[in-house]
Amino acid sequence: MSVFKSIFPYDQSLVDEFELMDDAELDDRINKSEKAYKHWSNLSFAARADVLKKVAQILRKDVDEFADTITHEMGKVLAEAKAEVEKCAVTCEYFAEHGEAFLQDEIVDGGYYKSLIAYQPIGAVLAIMPWNFPFWQVFRYAAPTLMAGNVTFLKHAPNVTGCALAIERVFLEAGAEEGVFQTLIIDTPEVEKIIAADIVQAVTLTGSEGAGSAVASLAGKHIKKQVMELGGSDALIVLPDADMKQAAATAVQSRMQNAGQSCIAAKRFIVLKDALGDFVTEVEAQIKKLRQGNPLQQGITTGPMARFDLAQQLQKQMQASLTKGAVLSIGGEVNGCNYQPTLLLKVREGMPAFDEETFGPMASVISVADEAEAVAVANESRYGLGGSIWTKDIDKGIALARKITTGAVFINTLVKSDARLPFGGIKKSGYGRELGKLGIHEFVNAKTIAVNR
Fold it and tell me: b/e map of 199-220 (b: 16 or more CB within 10 Å)?
């Protein structure tokens, strides 16, 4: 019998085991999806909105239970897990309130008596989601997708199967009929079977560059639309006129929350030389305030990384960077999955800390001479997800933001996803958008209707 295991990353204790689904069960799930879509897609926006509102209520009612599951399965501190669940509830409410307006017929002057664009659901969307935000990554796509009238399959990361099943139960409890939201406990070889199913018309994946390439190839083979949100190596640019305390505090928050396991974490701190000394001093002070330990205990700010192999990979990247001339300022020690918050100085191109995505609690400081070099260094990355700029000159910040080749740039604030704003990247960070009006339009049929008298 093949099983997925959930392991508490802090001490490697077994949380639970889950038996993988066989072909007969997958066929049954596909049939349920086809049946549910016929009904769900024809419901009114108001009816679908009612389900999403009830989902939000359940998430808030049972937040302690869900946060405990998140923490046990992937290791983030309880306060972060609770905040994640609340963000999911807010997003459900947002699309319940605005989804109908986003999908209203669009009247177009096309030279006919009447012409319009109707936005209609397409079928089932297969979502392949990662472990780092095991609730948020799911609701980020699911709320707009379901509000649009589609149904969905979730193939979650194996180590957060308990979270995946909990989310399915939430939708059922909220009144979504069986087949609207289904969790699939399957391994990689079974993914193509789901993609190939006629009811599945699109695939969304959040994960690594390699996973995105493999899944996009399968989706292309079967002519299914895709949205890919892949890796990131976000730059945080600090100009000399920035509020150094605020910039440093936000830099450390961005890099170290969720034990550094975030696609949009600020991974490369690009600092103009005139600001370097003050900024590094403030960052070092902020890192020293962090408390690493058991994520179930109050007062702990940094939990373990989600898996032992991930911690080992980060350690290899750090050691290789040190060998090439980087300087270890703080941290660097690892005990199992518990990776000490780390700061590297004198990082430059050619080091893993510069060239690769470092997915863990390790920040890199890169010194540059001026704004032009800051932009050039920020763009010298295979990734293009997000980034931030710190300056009191707002007009200059916006002008620089336009030159950064990413899907988002935030000025004087934390880079984060928000239900109201489109989210996604370019280059090797993927394509397509989630959230906002653009996000709900990704998985609909934009149908032209033209009429003459």
Answer: bbbbbbbbbebebbebbbebbe
Active site residue: 73, 84, 229, 434, which one? 229
Report field, pTM of the whole predicted structure over 0.85: yes
CB-based contact 419:439 (threshold 8 Å): no
Domain 234-418 matching CATH 3.40.30.10: the answer reads: no
What is the topology classification, in CATH, of domain 3-230+429-451?
A: Aldehyde Dehydrogenase; Chain A, domain 1 (3.40.605)
229 part of the active site: yes
**Strands 387-390, 234-238: pairing kind:** parallel
Q: Out of 88, 92, 163, 263, pick the active-site residue.
A: 263
From-to residues of CATH 3.40.605.10 in the chain: 3-230+429-451
CATH code 3.40.309.10 region(s) in the chain: 234-418
How would you write the pLDDT of the chain (453 residues) with one tens digit per residue?
A: 699 999 999 999 999 999 999 999 999 999 999 999 999 999 999 999 999 999 999 999 999 999 999 999 999 999 999 999 999 999 999 999 999 999 999 999 999 999 999 999 999 999 999 999 999 999 999 999 999 999 999 999 999 999 999 999 999 999 999 999 999 999 999 999 999 999 999 999 999 999 999 999 999 999 999 999 999 999 999 999 999 999 999 999 999 999 999 999 999 999 999 999 999 999 999 999 999 999 999 999 999 999 999 999 999 999 999 999 999 999 999 999 999 999 999 999 999 999 999 999 999 999 999 999 999 999 999 999 999 999 999 999 999 999 999 999 999 999 999 999 999 999 999 999 999 999 999 999 999 999 999
Q: Is 163 a catalytic residue?
A: no
